[in-house]
Specification:
The chain has 166 residues and is of the alpha/beta class. It contains 4 helices and 8 strands. The strands form 2 sheets. The chain has a 6-stranded parallel sheet, covered by helices on one side. A two-stranded antiparallel sheet has the order 3-4. α1 packs across α4.
């Protein structure tokens, strides 16, 4: 399973890009899954629901299952946050795993960067960022600069880099 990351500062458009990128890659017959990292505490459960109550009671894991999907909720309690490699065995094998976030992990990445937002770019300090997707033109010191609004071009870059052409 090939891993490729989409990184950038909060609010830069990573999720919007992924929404366009997934079908642009899948139309080439490439199976795609995603992992999203968040620095925020999140909860997929709602207070009062059975699964929420079971976790609050101390269950280490709660698996929710239906005829449409399933989800495994794992409480870290006092454990350290896992590294990305620890999540991979939980994923069904696909051709490409797109990772949103995990910006400091050592896998190839594209950075979504908008200079007009006034935030510093990640790419000058990170050699694993191979290209920058932006809605503006600027010097990238030899790294690829791809139009953020051209999901097909970004998909082609990822497919070519990972040699996923079918």
């Amino acid at each position: 399973m090939k891993v490729f990351g989409i990184v950038g500062k909060s609010g830069s458009g990573k999720t919007t890009l992924l929404e366009d990128l997934i079908p642009a890659i899948a139309k080439h017959g490439i199976s795609v899954s995603t992992i999203k990292h968040t620095h925020h505490q999140f909860d997929m459960d709602k207070p009062g629901k059975d699964s929420y109550r079971q976790r609050e009671a101390g269950a280490q894991e709660v698996l929710l299952a239906s005829s449409k999907r399933w989800a495994l909720l794992h409480e870290l309690r006092d454990e350290k946050e896992p590294e990305i490699e620890e999540f991979l065995p939980h994923m069904t094998k696909v051709d490409l795993l797109l990772v949103e976030g995990f910006k400091y992990h050592d896998h190839p990445k594209i950075e979504v960067h908008r200079p007009s937002y006034g935030r510093p770019a990640l790419w000058p300090e990170d050699q694993t960022i191979l290209a920058i997707a932006s809605d503006e033109k600027f010097e990238t010191d030899g790294r690829g600069l791809i139009d953020l609004n051209d999901a097909e071009a970004i998909a082609a870059f990822i497919i070519d880099h990972l040699q996923l052409r079918k």
